[in-house]
Design brief:
The protein has about 190 residues and is an alpha+beta fold. About 30% of the residues lie in helices and about 30% in strands. The two termini are about 25 Å apart. This is Peptide deformylase.
Length: about 190
């Protein structure tokens, strides 16, 4: 089932989310619905707080991006052995990040019609549980690492806007207000601030 995505301005998007365990009610259904919602919105990642569930859960598909990307551009965004992932992350914790950073365009399903250039570490090492609640510790690079960091931030109550310079944020204020009020629509179900 495709769930409505919370628009910028909802308090839950600024909440540090709670960890869950395998007995969390309706977990499998929630994960299925999150994948359906993400793909229905033509996204590459989605975090549970974006669908009004404040838990440490997110899904990422960097494989679709990898497969669609021009080969020359791909070399700058993916390391050779990375062909992208389709993964569920539960109770994730970033253990380490590289000193090397890079800037690339980011958008967010909760902030439709806006993209900005964001600086992030090139690689991260992250500990998490997969959908089967098997513990994983992996290192990711480039675009895959960026997508994971973006969704991980949602579980921390952080938006990509927080990485922008104050002047840039100030210039975006009017557009963000319009998004919060539902004056800028998306092509997928959204829940706006009342």
């Amino acid at each position: 089932m495709q769930l409505p995505i919370l628009a910028y301005g909802h308090d839950i998007l600024r909440k540090q989310c709670d960890e869950i365990d395998p007995s969390y009610p309706g977990l499998d259904k929630l994960i299925d619905n999150m994948w359906e919602t993400m793909y229905g919105a033509n996204g590459c990642g989605l975090a549970a707080p974006q669908v009004n569930v404040p838990v440490r859960l997110f899904v990422v598909d960097s494989k679709s991006t990898h497969d669609r990307m021009d080969e020359v551009i791909r070399e700058d965004h993916f390391v050779r052995e990375d062909t992208g992932i389709v993964e569920t992350f539960i109770n994730a914790n970033i253990l380490d990040e590289s000193d090397d950073a890079w800037i690339d365009e980011e958008g967010c399903l909760s902030i439709p019609a806006l993209t900005e250039r964001v600086k992030r570490p090139w690689s991260i090492t992250i500990e998490y549980f997969n959908r089967q609640f098997e513990k994983q510790t992996k290192t990711f690079y480039g675009t895959t690492a960026r997508m994971i960091q973006h969704e991980y931030d949602h579980t921390e109550g952080v938006l990509y806007l927080d990485y922008l310079k104050p002047l840039t944020r100030k210039l975006l204020h009017g557009k963000l207000e319009k998004i919060a009020k539902g004056q800028i629509k998306a092509k997928y179900p959204m829940q706006f601030v009342k």
